Amino acid sequence: MELQIEKLKQKYWKGKTSIEEEKILKKHFQNESSKKTETGFFAEIAKRKALESNKEFSLPQRKSRLIWQITTVAASILILITFAIGLDNLNSKNPYTIDDPKQAYKISRQALMLISTELNKGKIYSSEINKINEVKQEVKQIINK
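^ that's the sequence the OP posted. Answer follows.
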């Protein structure tokens, strides 16, 4: 019997038990005299189910309905405005488009020069790092001798 209960518990925690199997587990833990963790857990579930079954639901009052209607209208207007702005952006010409080939060449050349100067600055810093690494290696050689 204990082996069957143990298998049912494992099946329960995996969420694969049927209603009948859960009833068997519930009866087992209600009849069990020692207080184990599972017993407390099933007791807590039973208490919460009892509390939730006593709750009554009521329809929302008039004020909350009015607020709900105003909120839905405001959300609809917001969606329409966003859609209109998006359509306007799709139809507008890209301000960064250049039609003149000579001007495009000039701007591309300036951008490449900027990138080149920044890369050269990076090479200077990397040469400094190489010098530091060389000094480190010399110090290690001196220490190892």
